[in-house]
Amino acid sequence: MRRLFVRALARPLALAATAAAIPLVSAVPAAADSVVVGGFPVDVAQSPWTVAVSSRDRFGGTRAGQFCGGAVVGPTTVLTAAHCMGEEVLGGPPAKVRDLKVVAERTHLLSGEGREIPVREVRVNPAYDAAGNAGDFAVLTLAEALPQQDVIAMAAAGDPAYAPGTSALVYGWGDTSGAGDYTTGLRAARVHVLSDAQCRRAYPGGEEGAYLAESMLCAGETQGGRDACQGDSGGPLVAGGRLIGLVSWGSGCGRPGSPGVYTRVSDVVTRLSGA
Ligand code: ARG
């Protein structure tokens, strides 16, 4: 991940506000990416569990402070990526970010829609490995409750939604081109869950990173073109109405042979239940 950080810093950044979220992202210069997300606009009413994680103090107000995504899994519980709560992104420990918020029920970041709810507590998965990206999740506790209809169920281990070939949607406000074109409107892209063998082949370790089936899953399209990208991290991957993944990492965005890698939500379920 250090390699990625350096690369991203060397890149000119049009949006200084979101610069800090970018480092954790792309192993390849953005210009090398042909197409990215390949998604379509959605209204948050269709996916009310999708929230933006924001800090205007840290990232400025041009995107309401959005720097990562999150998924509502309980009225006061949001999952995001552990790396979103890392020092490289936040510039210090999460407790130092005074205005850490979740923006809920808002499609367009700059509209006044929905609610901004302060984050009361941040718990980073103690098993998170920042070097290899294993166990990339954090649990945010909100200061106010969201309605139950915003909550999405987490798919536990053995859920058929994890089967290779399953069609899934990934949601976010991230880069739509791989060149720093951050959207202010929520988008989704359709991708398919791949087998662990395919994911391992794509990411055998070394330069491209290592796929670890226990805490990760991967999804994409053989021809590329549809994927999550920078700024989508922590956001939901949903299949069969259940949460199966959180946007975590990938090599470039939407490149054939380099699927998106997600935090496997069944591992989150296992760890949260203390098993
Ligand atoms: N780590 C990125 C972020 O911080 C997400 C990268 C996802 N990349 C991908 N090709 N699916 O926003």
Automatic annotation (TrEMBL):
* GO molecular function, a single term: peptidase activity
The UniProt record lists the Peptidase S1 domain at: 36-275
| InterPro entries, per the entry | Peptidase_S1 (IPR050430), Peptidase_S1_PA (IPR009003), Peptidase_S1_PA_chymotrypsin (IPR043504), Peptidase_S1A (IPR001314), Trypsin_dom (IPR001254), TRYPSIN_HIS (IPR018114), TRYPSIN_SER (IPR033116)
* SUPFAM superfamilies hit by this protein: Trypsin-like serine proteases
Q: Report the Pfam families cross-referenced here.
A: Trypsin
Q: Which UniProt keywords apply?
A: Disulfide bond, Hydrolase, Protease, Serine protease, Signal
GO BP terms: namely: proteolysis
Question: May I ask which residue range the UniProt record assigns to the signal sequence?
Answer: 1-32
Q: Which PANTHER family match?
A: FI18310P1-RELATED, POLYSERASE-RELATED
Q: Which family does it belong to?
A: Belongs to the peptidase S1 family.
Please report the name of this protein according to its UniProt entry.
Answer: Serine protease
